[in-house]
Amino acid sequence: MERWYPATLLALILHQIDAAFWEEWKMFHAPGGIQGFLLFNLLAVGVVLHGYRQVLLGRPSARRYAVLCGALGVGTAAIHLGFAVAGSNEFHLPLSIAALLACLVAGGGLLLSSRPR
User: Fold this and answer.
1) Contacts with 92 (C-beta within 8 Å, 6 or more apart), sequence order
2) What pLDDT shows up at residue 1?
3) DSSP state of 86
4) pLDDT at 11 exceeding the cut of 90
5) What is the CB neighbour count within 10 angstroms for residue 7?
6) 74 and 108 Cβ atoms separated by less than 8 Å
């Protein structure tokens, strides 16, 4: 978990930076435009950063946060794959695709490493 969590977190943050370029809130018809997007990211990044602290400290809640972060990584990639299949023109630049692949691989690795032993 200690290695996959920061990799997933970094991939998700990179994707969200890219998402601001692509104006992702319009794709999701999210209320509030850029302001709503920023509030969402304030909460989401805050939660996954708090979760990383739980992992580092070996807290009992660490596994739950790792599963959440891993699911966000895999889910992010899956959602954008769905948009691409549906014909969306966003996120088709090479580094946009690389960030989404990183979300998928790191998120999947985190989910696998979070399984009870």
Assistant:
1) 84
2) 85
3) T
4) yes
5) 17
6) yes
* Cα first-last separation, the chain: 12
Give the burial string for 34-52 (b: 16+ CB within 10 Å, else e): eeebeebbeeeeeebeebb
Structure tokens that stand for 84 in this block: 């691409």
Both tokens of 52, joined, read 């990383």
Residue 95 neighbours by CB distance under 10 Å: 11
Q: Measured between alpha carbons, how far is 40 from 19 in angstroms, rounded to an integer?
A: 12
Sequence-distant (6+) residues with CB within 8 A of 100 are: 15, 76, 77, 80, 81, 91
Residue type present at position 113 = S
